[in-house]
Amino acid sequence: MEITGITQHRLQHELPAPFDASWVPGGQQTELAVDLFEVHTDEGITGVTAMPSFPGGLDLEPVFESQLVGENPHHVERILDFLDTVEFLGADARYIEVALWDIIGKDAGKPIYELLGGDDEPIAAYASTGAIKPAEERLDYVADRVAEGFEAVKLRFGSPDVETDLDVARTIREEFPDLTLMVDANNGWSMRLAGEVGHEWSLAEAKQVAAGLEAIGDVAWLEEPLPQRNYQRLAELRDSTSIAIAGGESTGGLASFREYIDHRSLDVLQPDAIFATGILDGKKVAGMAEAFGFEFAPHTWSNGIGLAANLHLLAATQAQWCEYPHEPPGFLPEERDFMLKETIVTEDGYVTPPDDPGLGVDIDWDVVEATEV
Ligand SMILES: [Mg+2]
């Protein structure tokens, strides 16, 4: 089998309400922009992958074609060896590997996780918020998720004063003593889409938050409290608290995870199959976590295709938690998965990996056509 070409579709899907993502300080997201890639083969099988985009984004079709046309999509290890050329030419390209697995799975007639030794056991999902909201509003959200069967919710921290964020968590803990909480500070990497860069915590502020969370209790982890490559500072924080420290969603591949392990910077390794590692190297990170006694909990927040890719990574490992992005009214699961014929849903707080061949998702090509710019 040979790769014969790449098609890039730039999609812009309007959200039903503006979404104030905590990682875009001062900015309001009114649409979900996605670069959807098709990888075509001479046997008529096409694989897909997707990456977050932005208005006027990059034309990557020629870059990927220059590297991938003529290659056998089954030869993932070989292709991973030269994806740094794509990086050199202007794009971090690990997400293209997801389309190779989509092809391999379709060719084999099996879901990706099954080819990687996984199973179709439902995975416990945590409801992942995306915005910083006052306590009363967040209490309603948590009540709705708990009614749906969720046993864990991830809050976003990033208010000017960390005590404001801690107060929200304290209020939720009072009302929901059994709820598992995760906290994400999004201080790992910058997302300068709205003309501002957010305030990053000092080590002292991170320690203050960790101490506050210790008192609140049943906090699964504190995510990205400090810049993602500040390995030593993260280790200092980790040494100072019993709260697990998590990160790694957007780091560049295996080497960064080796640094986290070497420096004892984190407790929870969180590669994303789209942003950080692809699926195969994500599984290698799971192996590193297993061997060195770290937790493994992939990041998933991008769009329906990204969630599906990470679900296969989760199902192919023994990960405990699946991040389930959900922030009404703007970022609902149906909006997140707008390019899919069927929304990826939870049942009683669990999510089941798609079991059709490859990624197992059915792209709605009418929607692709309608949202393409
Ligand atoms: Mg995060």
Quick overview of this protein structure:
InterPro entries: DgoD-like (IPR034593), Enolase-like_C_sf (IPR036849), Enolase-like_N (IPR029017), Enolase_C-like (IPR029065), Mandelate_racemase_C (IPR013342), Mandelate_racemase_N_dom (IPR013341). This protein has 373 residues and is α/β, with parallel strands linked by helices.
Describe the structure.
One of its GO terms (molecular function) is lyase activity. Pfam families: MR_MLE_C, MR_MLE_N. InterPro entries: DgoD-like (IPR034593), Enolase-like_C_sf (IPR036849), Enolase-like_N (IPR029017), Enolase_C-like (IPR029065), Mandelate_racemase_C (IPR013342), Mandelate_racemase_N_dom (IPR013341). There is one protein chain. The protein is α/β, with parallel strands linked by helices and 373 residues long. It has 2 domains: 3-110, Enolase-like, N-terminal domain (Enolase-like, domain 1), CATH 3.30.390.10; 115-351, Enolase-like C-terminal domain (TIM Barrel), CATH 3.20.20.120. It has helices spanning 61-68, 76-88, 96-108, 112-115, 135-148, 162-175, 203-216, 231-239, 254-262, 278-292, 304-315, 333-336, 365-371, and strands spanning 3-19, 29-41, 46-52, 123-128, 152-156, 180-184, 219-223, 245-247, 268-269, 295-296, 321-325, 350-351. The strands form 2 sheets. Strands 4, 5, 6, 7, 8, 9, 10, 11 and 12 form a 9-stranded mixed sheet that branches. Strands 1-2-3 form a 3-stranded antiparallel sheet. α9 links the parallel β8 and β9. The protein is globular and about 60 Å long. It starts with a strand and ends with a helix. The structure holds magnesium ion (MG). Magnesium ion binds next to loops.
